[in-house]
Predict the 3D structure of the following.
Amino acid sequence: MIALSIAGFDPSGGAGILADVKTFQALGVYPAAVITALTAQNVQRVAGVEPINPDFVSQQIDLVMGQENIKHAKTGMLYSGDMVEMVARKVTEYQLKLVVDPVMVAGSGGTLSRDELAESIKKHLLPRAMLTTPNIHEAEALTGLEIKNEEDACEAARTLGKICPTVVTGGHLNGRDIFYQRSIHLIEGEILESINTHGSGCTYSAAVTAYLSHGKKLDESLAKASYFTKKAIENGAHGTLNQMWKTNNH
């Protein structure tokens, strides 16, 4: 079993490609990884971003896809509209079943995208996706709606759900994830008192991708990914892969 992450590199190891790779591996999926940007960051701040040329990212995708039989992929930090359009073309070319984590801002507040990114994702990538997993800030950027409570988040999920199935993750509200696919579904959760939340969105979307690649249905993949992410936060930066393997058996 193999899945692909197309995302940025976080040298702290908590988010981006490294978080995706660790999650895939913990859930029994061999990770392939295409890097879209380098960042200078830690859990507290983003000091700089160096995007990779989209043509070189395209070459990475082609070489990986030419070698491996990959059906499932996820995107993270894409940074620019040009990158989004190129990735969208590749998703279509290789008929990838795609989970879109619309990364725009780091958990520390640092900007990880250009201004046109939200519109490009909405126009080019979401119509090709089987799921998108924005947090409330990303959902606001994608919809233009202000999200102050769960009702607002439901409206954002419905709006994006007209394009593709959507989960507005609940880490910035009361912990419940809001899933829209033809109707609203609430996935119960809780707010964890923890400082280990850097990269939790990456972990969640990667876990959904991993479970889908194992043949789980979308609703089951979401529930399992939510539980997996909770356990990853509880175990923190020093949680072991063995613990993550145990989580997979839940």
